Amino acid sequence: MTVRKDIATITERIRERSRDRREAYLARLEAAVSRGVHRSTLSCGNLAHGFAACAVSEKAALAGDVVPNLGIITAYNDMLSAHAPYETYPALIRRAAADAGGVAQVAGGVPAMCDGVTQGQPGMELSLFSRDVIAMAAGIGLSHNMFDAAVYLGICDKIVPGLTIAALTFGHLPAVFIPAGPMPSGLPNDEKAKTRQLYAEGKVGRAELLEAESKSYHSPGTCTFYGTANSNQMMMEMMGLHTPGSSFINPGTPLRDAMTREATQRALAITALGNAFTPAGRMIDERSIVNAVVGLHATGGSTNHTIHLIAMAAAAGIRLTWQDISDLSDVVPLLARVYPNGLADVNHFHAAGGMGFLIRELLDAGFAHEDVQTIWGNGLRSYATEPGLAQDGSVERYPAPEKSGDERVLIGVPNAFQASGGLKVLKGNLGHAIIKTSAVKPEKRFVEAPAIVFENQEALNQAFKDGDLDRDFVAVVRFQGPKANGMPELHRLTTVLGVLQDRGRKVALVTDGRMSGASGKVPAAIHVTPEALDNGAIGRIRDGDMIRLDGERGTLEILVAQEELDSRPLVVPDLSANGFGMGRELFAGFRQLALRADEGAASFGMEV
Fold it and tell me: Smallest Cα–Cα separation from 252: which of 181, 186, 187, 346?
């Protein structure tokens, strides 16, 4: 089926806006491709260094310049549950490459931090910028110019966006992303959330809280709630950068290993040395980006991608805007209910039909572009499948199920949970912001109440503990943008505001910080742009000012005369503490160079 007219119109708008920059990007890509197999440009001394650690047979193969060499970029570390499985992947990939007549080398490692560990801690102020570090670190690994294609081992919040930026910066190389999968289901997410609320209210102690958290996050693999990490995996499949059906296969299973071997072999098959050359930058175009956004809306994915997708698209010369994302949300239906937008986790989503069912539904209804290039080579329709393990240990695929295995978790387009995706741009005299409404009850999406202003989330939490917040109000948490302190996630506000809402209070959040995939049942205007430190109006709000947040109409307003608002001085608090400790000293330049949130917040001068 052809794509719907409204989807086609938005896609064409992006294409026209991007034309000059995209053409320049593709010209650079083609120039790089035309230089031929890249090891041929290295001197003998360069090449000898490049394969010094290889086996004798591999040296001979690489010296002949006719065997493809696969560069592995890995985000392995064994502290992060999602990335711990990657410890064994390089050896598995090398064996699979050898079986396919190629060679594989670890080209470089990139950092991978866990926002779950750093929530509310100074290290969280490095989180967003770690995306840019990851892109640059991957670039260093690939700059050795030894490789015919690259595979990327990464899962979590900033890692996949950073790796995607790198893959598109090196867009003359084919790129295959290899996931490691989610951990098996543990303590249900709603039970974990309930314990968090009880702890915030002082009704259970730290021991009970730690027990609940440990039962939820309990083994190697990605966290099972639908935050940024699992939204990443969905998007890689929607963009055709995964092999079909690979996003949510649990680690440590025979099928997971078989899919890793298959991904390796596919990466070698699409190099310039074969007949199916698929450079990443040529493959990913405006339609691919739109498909990623459509998938985000259809599954109720992470608000972080309203920042990351803009930066990822910019790396391929494509200009994506918040308005594009919002307009797509208005027409794409919500087809999945995965925590925090429901009670299920990603394992339940996969069992109900997963990505294969979702993609088929979106294609059949014309919400996604079918005629895109993918690493699989057959357009997006080939992803409407379900993988299984064949008797010989390889991967075999079946058509996606016609009916969802659990319609409380995954539903077809005719019976969608709601008509829109639930990500919307808010506009008004406070600037622009993002709101995620898919987990917010309709009757809670409008709040008009006096502001209570905080300069950090710790101050709000302390006010809650002191009993000062048992009333209707809009919490304004400012000086949390990229330039102020690196735009940390303010995840600790979710529980406190949720408690107050459950008590019957009308509450909302307005912030120039982030809330991520954990954005939940409380209406939250996040990523407010311009940020306070960038002379944004959010910096001029005073306690008691009436704030109106309307998630249905898409407005965010301070009910103060514009003349008075403009006359108020911007009072910047002492932010010097944000510049020191836990490595924050090293990121002063990033804070100074960071673009606005609606421009992707990149810190290395990437134009959007």
Answer: 181
Nearest-5° Cα angle at 418, 413 to 423: 110
Q: What is the pLDDT averaged over residues 203-232?
A: 82
In a domain, 514, yes or no: yes
Listed in sequence order, the DSSP H helices in 52-126 are 56-64, 89-99, 115-118
Do both 239 and 104 map to the same domain? yes
Same domain, 189 and 258: no
Q: Is 68 domain-assigned?
A: yes
Q: What is the total residue count of the chain?
A: 608
Tell the residue number behind the tokens 């098959």, with chain if given.
Answer: 269
Distance in angstroms (rounded) separating the CA atoms of residues 306 and 423: 9
Secondary structure of 167-212 in HEC code, one letter for each residue? HHHCCCCCEEECCCCECCCCCCHHHHHHHHHHHHCCCCCHHHHHHH
Among the listed residues 143, 144, 145, 142, the one whose alpha carbon sits nearest the alpha carbon of residue 175: 142
What pLDDT is attached to residue 191?
80
**Pair 51, 157 in one domain:** yes
Q: Which residues lie below 8 Å from residue 413, measured CB to CB, with a gap of 6+?
A: 333, 335, 361, 362, 364, 365, 367
Across 268-283, average pLDDT: 96
Domain total of the chain: 3
Residue 346 · residue 224 · CB < 8 Å = yes
Q: Is the pLDDT of residue 587 over 60?
A: yes
* Interatomic CA distance for residues 559 and 10, integer angstroms: 33
Rg (the chain; Cα; Å): 24
**Are 57 and 10 found together in one domain?**
yes
Is 606 part of any domain? no
Residues 6+ apart with CB under 8 A from 451: 473, 474, 475, 476, 510, 541, 542, 543, 544, 545, 546, 547, 558
Query: Which residue from 175, 174, 137, 169 is spatially nearest to 28, judged by alpha carbons?
Result: 169
225, 212: one domain: no
For the chain, give the mean pLDDT: 92
Residue 121: inside a domain: yes
Could you tell me if 328 and 10 are in contact, meaning their C-beta atoms sit under 8 angstroms apart? Answer: yes
**For residue 210, what are the domain limits?**
185-218
Q: Is the peptide bond before 530 cis (omega within 30 degrees of 0)?
A: yes
Classify strands 555-558 and 546-550 as parallel, antiparallel or unpaired.
Answer: antiparallel
Are 275 and 337 members of one domain? yes
What is the pLDDT, as a whole number, of residue 32? 95
pLDDT digits (tens, 9 = 90+) for 495-534: 899 999 999 999 999 999 998 755 678 999 999 999 999 9
Q: Which two tokens stand for residue 370?
A: 């079918």
54 is in an annotated binding site: no
- Domain end, chosen from 196, 218, 240, is at 218
Pairing of strands 423-428, 546-550: unpaired
Reported as a pLDDT band with limits 50, 70 and 90, residue 283 is very high
Q: What is the CATH number of the domain that holds 467?
A: 3.50.30.80
Q: Are 238 and 141 in contact (CB under 8 A)?
A: no
Give yes or no: residues 429 and 563 share one domain.
yes
> Residue 122: is the preceding peptide bond cis (ω within 30°)?
no
Do 105 and 159 lie in a common domain? yes
Q: Is 44 annotated as a binding residue?
A: no
